[in-house]
Design a protein that fits this description.
The chain is built from nine helices and 13 strands. It has 341 residues and is α/β, with parallel strands linked by helices. It folds into three domains: 72 residues, Orthogonal Bundle (Arc Repressor Mutant, subunit A), CATH 1.10.10.10; 103 residues, ATPase, nucleotide binding domain (Nucleotidyltransferase, domain 5, 2-Layer Sandwich); 119 residues, Nucleotidyltransferase, domain 5 (2-Layer Sandwich). The strands form three sheets. A five-stranded mixed beta sheet has the order 6-5-4-7-8, with helices on both faces. It has a five-stranded mixed beta sheet with strand order 11-10-9-12-13, with helices on both faces. Helix 2 packs across helix 3, helix 6 packs across helix 9 and helix 7 packs across helix 8. It is globular and about 60 Å long.
Length: 341
């Protein structure tokens, strides 16, 4: 552990770090209350984090603190790089340690070149985009998220075999890797982790909506291991095979689509009660429209059956996946480089 933390327990430092970066302009007393540690312990950890320039200290004149107090917030210079590969376009996210999105670059596919050339052009442009906004040596981690259906082809194009972790992909060298070894993953898997984090220990039903297709993944609270979310529930779309865990249906129009979704959601919450339904996709306006129509029908069904409908939220799948990947990169960077470095 670094010398700055020599008199502190590793778990305590990690807890203080996570609590401090979860808000802005927090006093040491507020951080102590959030993480359940003594003010003295928190004070020592915060002083070390400020010395390492992970946190930035200032004086607050906020009325809630009474007199002027010393507050800390996460350094705006530290950030993570998230490449998201989609079937219709690519996105590059710059996210700080508080999981706030600094900036996003969208990349439209040209469609008439090989996938490796497309990917190479994307990462070069993303590297230039990032260098205009932040220092490369302050990047805390890099992740590449791809669709499950194209994971094999994209990772092969980048020179990265599934399961290989010893060498960085050849197309993410130098500036495009931001001096970090990239982490590879599947977009929906990371979004599922985000959904689980939002719901804490509750049960979540995730519904993925892409151009009329819906896939739902159910998470049972208290699951462990790598199978936090398993394919189960419903699948509405044209390109899916029937199984005991997945259901397939073609909706001819938006109204039928929403009615079918509401019906299956009702069946799902009757079979396995849940606390949150998360609608996710790449088109926010489409998501809002689907939610409004579906919820009206869903609430009516639940009322007839005497069931209290769970909360329904909307989120772009890329935003959620990027936030989950950034959180994982942040925590591993702090644990490996700051605590054990």
């Amino acid at each position: 552990m670094k010398q700055e933390f020599s008199n502190l327990k590793q778990d305590s430092v990690l807890e203080v770090f996570r609590s401090a970066v979860s808000g802005s302009n927090l006093t040491r007393a507020e951080i102590a209350e959030k993480c359940g540690l003594s003010v003295m312990t928190v004070g020592k950890a915060v002083d070390a984090l400020v010395a390492l320039k992970i946190l930035k200290q200032s004086m607050s004149a906020d009325p809630r603190h009474g007199r002027r107090s010393r507050t800390v917030t996460v350094s705006p210079e530290l950030w993570t790089a998230i490449y998201i590969i989609g079937e219709r376009g690519y996105s590059f996210y710059m996210i700080d340690l508080s999981l706030r999105t600094i900036d996003v670059m969208q990349y439209a596919l040209r469609g008439n070149i090989f996938v490796d050339d497309e990917f190479n052009g994307f990462v070069r442009r993303a590297a230039a985009f990032a260098k205009e906004r932040r220092r490369i040596d302050r990047c805390c981690g890099t992740a590449v998220l791809v669709p499950a259906a194209t994971y094999q082809s994209i990772s092969a194009a980048a020179g990265q075999d599934i399961g290989e972790t010893n060498a960085p992909p050849r197309l993410l060298e130098g500036d495009s890797a931001f001096l970090c070894r990239p982490v590879w993953g599947i977009t929906r898997d990371y979004h599922a982790r985000r959904a689980q984090a939002l719901a804490a220990d509750k049960n979540v039903f995730c519904v993925y909506i892409n151009t009329g297709d819906i896939k739902a993944v159910y998470n049972g609270a208290g699951t462990s291991g790598n199978s936090q979310f398993s394919n189960a529930g419903l699948f509405v779309g044209n390109n899916s095979s029937m199984s005991l865990n997945d259901m397939t249906m073609t909706a001819a129009d938006p109204e039928l689509f929403c009615e079918t979704l509401a019906e299956y959601l009702c069946i799902s919450v009757l079979c396995v009660p849940c606390d949150l339904i998360l609608l996710s996709g790449d088109k926010p306006k489409h998501l809002d429209a689907v939610r409004d129509v579906t919820c009206a029908i869903f609430d009516e069904y639940c009322m007839k059956l005497g069931v209290i409908p769970p909360e329904v939220r909307c989120e772009r799948i890329r935003d959620g996946a990027a936030a989950a990947a950034a959180q994982e990169l942040r925590d591993s960077w702090f644990r490996d480089k700051m605590l054990n470095g």
